[in-house]
Structure formats: structure tokens, C-alpha cells
Design brief:
The chain has about 375 residues and is an alpha+beta fold. The protein has 3 domains: about 110 residues, Arf GTPase activating protein (Annexin V, domain 1), CATH 1.10.220; about 120 residues, PH-domain like (Roll); about 120 residues, Pleckstrin-homology domain (PH domain)/Phosphotyrosine-binding domain (PTB) (PH-domain like), CATH 2.30.29. Helices cover about 30% and strands about 25% of the residues. It has 10 helices and 17 strands. The strands form 3 sheets. It has a 7-stranded antiparallel β-sheet with strand order 7-6-5-4-10-9-8, with helices on one face. A 7-stranded antiparallel β-sheet has the order 14-13-12-11-17-16-15, with helices on both faces. Helix 1 packs parallel to helix 3. About 35% of the residues are buried. Keywords: Cytoplasm, GTPase activation, Metal-binding, Repeat, Zinc, Zinc-finger. This is ArfGAP with dual PH domains 1.
Amino acid sequence: MSANERATRALREIQQIPGNDACADCGAPDPGWGSCSLGVFICLACSGIHRNIPDISKVKSLSLSRWEDHEMQFMAENGNELMKSKYEAAVPVYYYKPTHKDCQVLREQWIRAKYERKEFSEPGKNFTYEEGTRDGVLMKRGRDNGQFLSRRFVLSEREGTLKYFTKYDAKEPKAVIKVDTINATFQPEKIGNPNGLQITYLKDYSTRNVFVYHENGKEVVDWFNSIRAVQLHYLKVAFPGATDAELVPKLTRNFLKEGYMEKTGPRQTEGFKKRWFTLDQRRLMYFKDPLDAFAKGEVFLGNRDHGYNVSLGLPAGTHCNGAWQHGITIETPERLFLFTCEMESDQQDWVKHFSDIMSAPMSPQEYTMEAMFKHRH
């Protein structure tokens, strides 16, 4: 057996230690790389980020690189769990810890915050996310012309608002957004910028989208976590008895699914039109274009026991004049919604999501939302 094979075998044994079997930074299973200067096992994607901080992290492949005995010893003595207790000792509860499904900018800033800036190593530090206000410029997509222009944004914990101004010295904001209605989610592909952030909020019971980015990745992730910090503050006031574990899932959330489907109108005699759909918990919204500011419509997905159902295919006799053949029927107490998908795999995926939602029990807030939808439509 060659020295290399021996080293690989030894490293694989160290990987059997609990915690070392998933990436130290994003949790991806079976990491194939290690940082021999930090003593952590990491996945391929995170190893690329570690390579960008070479003075802190020295990365090696577990199977292809040559490992010195002292490096293997270091990995055995440290490992993921021990290093997490050091570098993640004081992560604030609202701070979003990315997973392997999250985009590059979130992962990179998490890794830099941990090892380069050592933000979470000592308890009692003041975090930039908790300063009560945040004031700065973000590039915002214009509602009508689609151009990104610089706009001043101001987040205020005291007021519980995020405002934006069309001119830096404008007295009146263009919009005042209440933080308790905000969702923020990173959308690099859709926005066409690696640091693209979509902010959604409720305006007159309708969902409004704002698309922003900043050239600096740290800046946009700081905005994201500052919004979460202010939201948590408001939730603690609104639900004084609730634990952090109950409140954190109510902060920003990723959409369950997005993509194109075709849909027909309420009489089901209109042609099927291609629309962009966003599934955000129990709200299924549809847009003419993925970057539209307002949804053309929304469907509330309640619980099965209350007359909501989903099935594959379209009702018999439906005149399907669209290009797409893989039908989905959603039944609500008020009406049927008919959709078609281009691919069968997409149809199956949407139906699984709809079915899971309809099987889940509804929260008091969701009952309120359902009543609001019925009142509106």
C-alpha cells in the first residue's frame, strides 16, 4: 500500500468521528476535502471558498493530495465538532446559517465571518446586525423599465420598518415596508446578479416584490441578517412566551418552489397562458414575468379537511390548447385552478409540494390569511 493510500485510509477513519461526516460549513454529506490549517472536513463547493482565504485555510483533497503525518494528527485532534465550538461559539440566533442548497454569496460570507473575521468566536461581541438602524445604498430594479438604479434603504428597529428613497436626500420615502410582513430570499439566477436579493412584503393584502443587489457580497448579506435581527425583535414583542426555536422559522424563508406553468382562467374556456409561479408556504402566486413587482393573482392552499385538494391531470372535457400536456388540478372551496407543466418531472414535483402543504395543519396566522383571501376574492 502506498503512502498516499495509507493517508487516505487514515483520513477516512478520522472521518468516522461524529460530525466529520458532513461539511463543517454547509452540512453537505460525505465531504471530500479538508482544511489542514483549521482542522475541518469540508465539501468541494466550500473548499473553493476556503481557497480564497489562503492565509487562514490550507485546503487538501482527502484522496488526491499528499498529507503529512502532522497534518493528519492535527485533523484527528480537532475535527468539525471541536472547531464549531470554537468558531461558532456565539452565532446570534437570527443569523442565517446556510446549507449546501444555498447560493454562493451566503456560504462565502458565512465562512469568512467564521474564520476570517472571527465574528462568532467570543460571546458578548457587538454585532453589526444589531445596531438598531442600517442605512445604505442598494441597486434596485425599476418597476416599469427593469433597470437597476441605486436607491437609499433605511432599516429601523425602533419603527419596525424598511424604507427606500428614490433620491439620497429625499425627505419622503418611496415605500415604507413593515418588517413583520417581509420575506427576503437570495435569487442570483433570477435577478442575474450573484448577490441578488428578493424582498417581498404585503401591501394592501397583495404581495409586492422588490429586487436588489450590492456589488459587495458582505454588504448584501449584512442587510439580510440585519432584517432578520429586527424581525426577531418584533416577534419577541408580539409573542412574548415563545422560544427562539419557535420564532426563528418565522424569519425569512426560501420559497418552496418556483418555475413556469401554464394556467387557464376561472371559466376554463380561456386559452392556457404561460406564467411564472412562486410557492411561498401556503401562497401560490403567479406572475407574467419572473421579475414583476406584483403578482397577477394568488391561490391560497389550505388544509385538505377544509375542501382543498390537488390531483394529477385536468378534468374530463377540458379544452387544452396550450403546448404543455402535464396537467394539475387544484380544488379550493371556491373554484378549480387548472395548470399544465412542460415536463412530467415538474408536474410530479409541484404536486408533491401542494400535497405536503395541504396535509400540514394550519397555524392561527394561516387561518387569518385564509379569511383575508376569501374576503378579497
